[in-house]
Amino acid sequence: MKSVLLLVMAVLAFASSAPAAQRAALSGAQAQIATRGYVRLTDWAGANGFQFRWVRREHTFQLSGASAKISFSVDSREAQVNGVGVWLSFPVALREGAAWLAQVDIQTALQPLLWPPRNRSGATLKSVCLDPGHGGKDPGNKVGPYLEKKYTLLLAQEVERQLVRAGLKVTLTRASDTFIDLGDRPEAAKRKNADLFVSLHFNSAESSRTVVRGAEVYCLTPAGASSTNAKGEGGGAGSFPGNRHNEKNLFLAYQVQKALTRNLAVEDRGVRRARFAVLRDATMPAVLIEAGFMSHPEEGKRIFDVGYRRQMARAIVAGLLAYKKAVEPGG
Q1: pTM for the full predicted model
Q2: Residue 292 — φ and ψ, nearest 5°?
């Protein structure tokens, strides 16, 4: 009897100490939709101090609170958190006139942004590993004479200079035009005891080169969830080492995406999910940045310009420092 009483007390203590979003996810109305667990958003909003408002009945709606405004569309995976695009793992569902959000999106998309994860006491962010995409025999995207591998390295070197000036230790997975296996890149960050892993890339869309532009930042897809872009990621839908940092991965990606779109005024393609090898195997919070489209006539010209890359580096550094400030104890 005593052991049962202790167990009940422990459960009640956990419930009272857990973040409000976790309590709401457990206590709000739940349903199985397309075999997945969903939470009714009016319940979740009420339990967490948000107001639910239809912008267009049964089509688009907003959750508004003291610190955030979140916009959703029914049957869509695209959302906006304080004006920054964030892709969900599963579409918002409409059931009997009510909007429902997948439990995994409550836990891995909303919670990390509304209640940012914190480092343990005394743990500060001191070092960053930058990963210039491609290199050597792997040129990456090609636009005329311009090769992605050259510009990812140039961007990484500029980000490095600015981070060092900000007082951080920086390592690069490659410092020259050399080929590095994908698996060796997060491993290099682990060997250097890096606190963050940041992979730098540029996009290309040859079939619609005059239309598609903008920045997008990827973090690892939660276990069992659907990626935004499954191109070349492999590995199945299971759990990987990088999933241990799901909350920080998402919060880091959001801070970088916000800094890029607001400081550079580029099109916001949103925070996205993928199981890229460099994200799967990272043992620290990690993101992959697609900083713009080389294939777009105007955006490409800017990417190839040293002055614009300096501004881009400044935006990336601003995002990393915003993350650092938010997660460190006392931040």
Answers
A1: 0.91
A2: 160, 170
